[in-house]
Amino acid sequence: MNDRPVAGVALCFVLGYVLALVWPSPWFTLYLTLGAGVLGCAVLLFQPAGKMLLLGALIITGAAGWYGETTRHNVSAISIGERDEAEVRLSGRILTPVTVDGDRVSLQAAAVNIDAGDGSVTPVSAEGERLQLSIRLLEKEEQDAAKGWQRGDRIVLSGTLKPPAEARNFGGFDYRRYLFYQRVHWQVNAKGLGSVHVTPPGQGEWGLWLPLRWNDRLRDLSEQVETLFPQDQSGFMKGMLIGITDEIDPKQFDLFSQLGLTHIIAISGLNVAIFLGCILWLLRRLGLARETYYLIAIGVGHQMD
């Protein structure tokens, strides 16, 4: 803790989260976190023997209380009674980048209103309830329309509301648990863009999504790559620079596959450079010597190659 205070505090926070996750308790509340904070201030003020051990224990306790309080409020305001699913009409705002994978479109949206028509679904009347949306495309032309959606856009769709699927096999991927830690408790499935209506935000509308929307635009470098390279090279360069492999010539991709070099495309040079830059910045802030964080970066880059 004395030599690497940031690393020590981070480790104690992780241990506190693990403690609350493995041994959940009604005692893990915000009051416990506040109490640990007060005692921590007292330890810093009076400097008793074993100060660092006491501070570490208090940080672990405070983190456990914070995790327990957060989990306690991670509940849904939506209810469909005893049914497994319900047909609903949803209006909301897109919160995440839109992923188009073949005939599937995935995104998350904050619900403004959910209406089942028969009053069987508890309505959401304020922005906040986050939902996972999955839209199955019926025509190839719908892909281009879906790729134009952005964070902050208003979305209205009709679909099936149901809980996310749980793991079917022991040790398998639990999609419901995965979404739970993103504060998502429901998903809505729709078919075709005929049941979906997306509009950009109006003038004067703003929120946390606005800077993220700008950031998404800055990250979309595909158009710039197309202007810099000829048509027969742009697809390959997109794969190398920004990791977009959909437009690579299949014959060219097969050649790389036969040589065992597809990892060069899968992990693009620009992505590796940005990732290693973030690693170097973080290690410098943690107080590591230059030789140490360079060696760590070299090792990480070697594992990614």
TrEMBL record:
<keyword id="KW-0812">Transmembrane</keyword>
<feature type="transmembrane region" description="Helical">
    <location>
        <begin position="53"/>
        <end position="68"/>
    </location>
</feature>
<dbReference type="InterPro" id="IPR025405">
    <property type="entry name" value="DUF4131"/>
</dbReference>
<dbReference type="InterPro" id="IPR052159">
    <property type="entry name" value="Competence_DNA_uptake"/>
</dbReference>
<dbReference type="Pfam" id="PF13567">
    <property type="entry name" value="DUF4131"/>
</dbReference>
<protein>
    <submittedName>
        <fullName>ComEC family DNA internalization-related competence protein</fullName>
    </submittedName>
</protein>
<dbReference type="GO" id="GO:0005886">
    <property type="term" value="C:plasma membrane"/>
</dbReference>
<feature type="transmembrane region" description="Helical">
    <location>
        <begin position="30"/>
        <end position="46"/>
    </location>
</feature>
<feature type="transmembrane region" description="Helical">
    <location>
        <begin position="260"/>
        <end position="283"/>
    </location>
</feature>
<keyword id="KW-1003">Cell membrane</keyword>
<keyword id="KW-1133">Transmembrane helix</keyword>
<dbReference type="InterPro" id="IPR004477">
    <property type="entry name" value="ComEC_N"/>
</dbReference>
<feature type="domain" description="DUF4131">
    <location>
        <begin position="25"/>
        <end position="192"/>
    </location>
</feature>
<dbReference type="Pfam" id="PF03772">
    <property type="entry name" value="Competence"/>
</dbReference>
<feature type="domain" description="ComEC/Rec2-related protein">
    <location>
        <begin position="240"/>
        <end position="298"/>
    </location>
</feature>
<keyword id="KW-0472">Membrane</keyword>
